[in-house]
Q: What sequence folds into this?
């Protein structure tokens, strides 16, 4: 079946521009996660949704980062007034059931964001 | 969430078993051990997970010690396509069970 889909695959923006990154989770998956991966590092948690509710946004690095999932399926990560340090791969993951630690998360291939 | 320790890199000959170790000495009773791998330019791929018992699937086997303080991921017949960074993660059910990645082990399978 279809996996997690992210778009665009690559995004180049000038410093100060706003960007929006899209995630289509696996159909029926309740939980959705966003992670940020800097070059040479492991992914770092940004935020978590259960259906449309954003239950954890403790990993968002600043108030320039905003995520939403209005209908409980597709999610968008928005970064306002981008800075060079925002350059990274942004990964989305989904899992079937919330708050159950024996349900694996399945990842998309990410959006590689480059800020010039 | 418990922290994990993995060797930064390992080599393995093609066709041989790759045994990747992980230490998680502070693991709690309700925390699962997960393994993911990440091939260059792709997202992390789920491999296997376990709580107490050894687990096996079509990709790998997971051996967890009786005291649960360490585990080993076994790829029984490594191929060149298994070259990747392998992450061992201890995961709780709190806050939806976010994954906390370390640096992982960079496995190089050589012909």
A:
């Amino acid at each position: 079946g279809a996996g997690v889909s992210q778009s665009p695959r690559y995004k180049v923006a000038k410093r100060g521009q706003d960007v929006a990154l899209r995630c289509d989770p696996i159909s029926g998956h309740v939980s959705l996660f966003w992670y940020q991966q800097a070059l040479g590092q492991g992914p770092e948690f940004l935020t978590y949704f259960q259906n449309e509710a954003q239950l954890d946004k403790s990993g968002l690095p600043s108030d320039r980062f905003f995520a939403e999932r209005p209908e409980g399926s597709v999610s968008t990560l928005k970064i306002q007034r981008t800075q060079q340090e925002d350059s990274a791969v942004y990964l989305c993951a989904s899992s079937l059931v919330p708050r159950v630690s024996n349900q694996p998360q399945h990842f998309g291939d990410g959006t590689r964001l480059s800020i010039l | 969430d418990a922290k994990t320790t993995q060797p930064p890199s390992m080599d393995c000959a093609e066709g041989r078993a790759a045994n990747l170790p992980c230490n998680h000495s502070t693991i709690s009773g309700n925390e699962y051990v997960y393994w993911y791998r990440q091939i260059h330019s792709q997202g992390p791929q789920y491999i296997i997970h376990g709580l107490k018992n050894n687990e096996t699937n079509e990709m790998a086997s997971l051996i967890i010690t009786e005291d649960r303080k360490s585990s080993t991921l076994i790829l029984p017949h490594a191929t060149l396509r298994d070259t990747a960074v392998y992450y061992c993660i201890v995961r709780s059910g709190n806050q939806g069970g976010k994954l906390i990645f370390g640096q992982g082990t960079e496995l190089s399978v050589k012909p």
